[in-house]
Amino acid sequence: MSKYIVVLAALCMAAPSFAELTTNLGTSNKYMFRGVKQSDADIVVNGGIDYQGPFGFYTGAWAYTGSIEDLKTSEINAYAGFAYAIGPVALGLGAITYERGGDAVDDSEYNANIAWDAYRYSYYVESEEAHVYQEVAANYDFWDNAGMSFTAGLHTPEDAKERWDWSMSILMGLPSKSDFEIILNNHQRKGYSLSLSFTRQFDW
Fold first, then answer.
1. Whether pTM exceeds 0.85
2. For 114-136, b where at least 16 C-beta lie within 10 A, e where not — what string?
3. Where are any strands of DSSP class E within 101-190?
4. Cβ contact 171:147 at 8 Å
5. Angle at the Cα of 148 (from 48 to 42), degrees rounded to 5?
6. Do 200 and 25 meet the contact criterion of CB atoms below 8 Å apart?
7. Domain ranges of the chain
8. Contact, 95 vs 113, CB < 8 A?
9. Tell me: the pLDDT tens digits for 122-131?
């Protein structure tokens, strides 16, 4: 799910009036979601499709699998929403659904985002209001093809104690619209984890 969060952050930064369709394909050594490892597979393959339309509308889907033979190691996410820029400030509203292990849709969230310059705040609430997740993020460019991102999140379950997670990543742009990312995650209960990923984007 890391990619859908990146997509939402990017869309909140700009909302052009033209339509754009892109796809992406990548691989990583593990799939982390809010500081927690989601798949036991050593290698994860992921892909997605994103449509950015006029008036700030966007929609897309993202999926990963650790084994083509075993759908229990897979997940599919679909999302849609609107993002608007008002001067230096961008606002976004959206919805996300998750399908895990080949089952029917078993979870969904609504989100609100506000971004200013390199900084973003996001608020996610589960459809039945059993879980709330808040996230702040900052992005910094090193050069034209490299940058660093920081995120911190607070998960508030309905029947459990709050728990924090944070991540720090370095993203390096490569030729042919590809990128390589190193991500250090920390979860209040799960501890530290390091993941490596490679992604390529295709424009249509």
1. no
2. ebeeeebebebbeeeeebbbebe
3. 107-116, 119-126, 131-143, 146-157, 163-174, 178-187
4. yes
5. 50
6. yes
7. 2-203
8. no
9. 999 987 777 8
